[in-house]
Design brief:
Blueprint lengths: L13 E2 L10 H8 L3 H6 L12 H11 L8 E4 L1 H13 L5 E6 L4 H8 L3 E6 L10 H7 L4 E6 L12 H14 L2 E5 L15 H4 L3 E6 L12 E4 L3 H11 L8 H10 L3 H23 L5 E3 L7 E6 L5 H12 L1 E2 L1 E2 L9 E5 L6 H8 L4
Parallel strand pairs: 1-11, 3-4, 3-5, 5-6, 6-7
Antiparallel strand pairs: 2-8, 7-8, 9-10, 10-13, 12-13
Helix pairs in contact: 3-10, 4-5, 4-9, 11-13
């Protein structure tokens, strides 16, 4: 499947599709953490970091986010896109089988397909709050499956799964001897309850991925990470990364090392914005004949079903032209579902929601 392309005149439009909460300002970060971030950055080295990434950052991540995985199990990347590319290229060859869910963040499918892998997609059940259709998923995994890819809390639907669901997925992967790649970039943005365990902590062929841009709302900090307890796989990552970014920015590393110990404060700010917007969006669409929303349980987005519009792309273009609001249609997420992704993470979003949901289109 070819990558979906948006060739729309979006200059000057307000983006209401973003999966990350509204980015922090420097003033917000300093007030929230009481850190002298300017002085910290002035102390950052301006040299190359190691290929595996700053040991200070890896120690902070290990201590704060993982229970079993240690600093030597972590490799830093320049964002999540590099992480997906590195992981996929380190595991897959032409003809390998991959199983994942749709809708999804498109590179989770397209990068594997670009390598010649056969990607089986299992559609989450839109009629049951985007739950996993277990019989279809269990049938898709076979002895030929090399890799299973999951993403919970989920982009774009905001759905999540229980600890027992995650354990069932791990058990299936263990039964068939396949790798499990867990895109965990929205971990910590659960609307209720505790985050799911990190897959890399729970399974010897598991890989977890995190990033500063999503749950932490810092997309300008181009730093992500991959985690595994398998030393050979990690060395393969580093060999591939040597032809890409080589290493992450030392300035990004310095800032990340300062902020990770304060991650609960950052996450609470982001969840507060999301929950306020969630109440507004669901209030506007409740009993609305044109739209339907399943409950978003995590992350910072909701996937809106269009009930009376034949074309999701035409609807999004109409909203763009009439209201200068940019939302992304469902075709961008490898699905035939008719709808669009809407952010719950933008401050002062009410007027934009009103334009989308209550104005005549």
């Amino acid at each position: 499947m070819a990558s979906y392309s948006l060739n729309w005149p979006i200059a000057g439009a307000t983006a209401m599709h973003s999966s990350n909460p509204e980015p922090f300002t420097w003033d917000e970060l300093q007030q929230l953490t009481q850190l002298d971030l300017k002085q910290s950055l002035l102390q950052a080295p301006l040299n190359y970091e190691s290929n595996q990434g700053s040991i200070t950052v890896r120690e902070a991540l290990s201590e704060k986010l993982y229970k079993q995985c240690q600093p030597h199990h972590i490799a830093l990347t320049s964002g999540a896109q590099e992480g997906i590319y590195v992981l996929t290229n380190s595991l897959l060859e032409a003809g390998d089988e991959v199983v994942t869910f749709t809708p999804c963040f498109e590179p989770l499918v397209t990068v594997a397909r670009s390598l010649g892998a056969k990607v089986k997609t299992v559609a989450l059940d839109a009629k049951d709050n985007w739950s996993i259709p277990w019989p279809k998923f269990e049938q898709a995994i076979t002895t030929k499956t090399k890799l299973v890819i999951i993403n919970f809390p989920h982009n774009p639907t905001g759905t999540s799964i229980s600890n027992s669901d995650l354990q069932h997925i791990i058990n299936l992967c263990d039964q068939y001897g396949c790798w499990l790649f867990s895109d965990e970039v929205f971990r910590g943005l659960e609307h209720e309850g505790s985050p799911l365990p990190a897959v890399a902590d729970c399974y010897d062929k598991g890989v977890s991925m995190g990033v500063m841009s999503k749950s932490m709302a810092l997309p300008g900090v181009r730093l992500g990470w991959l985690v595994t307890q398998n030393p050979r796989l990690l060395q393969n990552w580093l060999s591939i990364k040597a032809y890409l970014s080589i290493c992450q920015s030392s300035l990004d590393a310095q800032l990340t090392a300062q902020l990770i110990p304060h991650s609960e404060k950052l996450l609470k700010r982001n969840r507060d914005i999301i929950m306020t917007n969630k109440a507004s969006v669901y209030g506007m669409t409740n009993n609305n004949p044109e739209f339907h929303l399943s409950e978003s349980k995590g992350a910072g987005t909701v996937f809106v079903e269009l009930k009376s519009f034949k074309s999701a792309e035409n609807f999004c273009i109409e909203v763009l032209k009439k209201h200068r609001i940019f939302i992304i249609p469902s075709a961008a997420f490898v699905t035939d579902f008719s709808g669009f992704r809407l952010t719950l993470g933008q401050r002062n979003a009410l007027k934009f929601y009103q334009s989308i949901f209550t104005a005549n289109h």
